[in-house]
Structure to design on (238 residues):
């Protein structure tokens, strides 16, 4: 399973927590591919907005050689079930599949208390592109070249306007549960911290799962995570 993950160096911890959560539950091999600008020949993935992979997610069919399937997830997520169950929902008749959210935010600002605090705007098909099963070989996705994605506007891309509506399949809502936007759902399989991850103080109590996987990601037998952090800080000048 190829899993492209949005990566922002300003909250790198979120990427590693997500990967740890996948590993904890995975029943099949997973290839993690971070969408990090230097790895993409410094493709500008952020021309506007907050995170560093706003636009690079639309390069995935191109990066996959317009062949096969790939999963994309934002870098601020945690899974609580086997990602193979999501992978099994691939359907060749669609160019991509996504959770088709239809909501208006109750939170006009996001990333509260951080240097990247920003307006949390409503727009059509908001968060559809945060979890996408890409049919990279579908003819309609061949338009997504590096130059095309680099020049297309956010409105066009976020709304999947290069596709017909019947080319976009539905994923179950539990595979992109918007934490703090939706009521708590104990059946949610993928928790999306769209307002800010629990790594940030303002959202620390929003999801205990994040902290569980963070501690597991820092596991070194016989060592305490807090001591590992202290030693790392002591050597920062190197």
């Amino acid at each position: 399973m190829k899993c492209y993950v949005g990566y922002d160096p300003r909250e790198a911890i979120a990427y590693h927590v997500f990967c740890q959560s996948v590993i904890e539950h995975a029943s099949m091999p997973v290839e993690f591919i971070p969408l990090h600008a230097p790895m993409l020949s410094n493709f500008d993935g952020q021309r506007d907005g907050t995170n560093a992979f706003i636009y690079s997610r639309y390069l995935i069919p191109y990066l996959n050689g317009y062949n096969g399937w790939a999963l994309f997830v934002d870098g601020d997520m945690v899974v609580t079930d086997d990602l193979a169950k999501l992978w099994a929902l691939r359907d060749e008749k669609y160019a991509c599949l996504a959770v088709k959210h239809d909501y208006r935010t109750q939170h006009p600002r996001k990333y509260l208390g951080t240097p990247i605090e920003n307006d949390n705007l409503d727009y059509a098909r908001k968060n559809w592109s945060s979890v996408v099963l890409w049919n990279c070989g579908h003819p309609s996705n061949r338009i997504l070249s590096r130059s095309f994605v680099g020049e297309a506007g956010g409105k066009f891309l976020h709304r999947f306007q290069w596709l017909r509506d019947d080319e976009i399949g539905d994923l179950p809502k539990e595979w992109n549960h918007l934490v703090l936007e939706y009521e708590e759902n104990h059946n949610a399989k993928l928790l999306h911290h769209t307002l800010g991850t629990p790594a940030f103080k303002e959202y620390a109590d929003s999801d205990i799962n994040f902290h569980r996987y963070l501690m597991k990601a820092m596991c070194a037998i016989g060592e305490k995570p807090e001591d590992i952090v202290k030693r790392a800080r002591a050597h920062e000048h190197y």
The CA atoms of residues 66 and 75 lie 23 Å apart. The mean pLDDT is 92. The chain has one domain: 2-234. The longest strand covers residues 2-6.
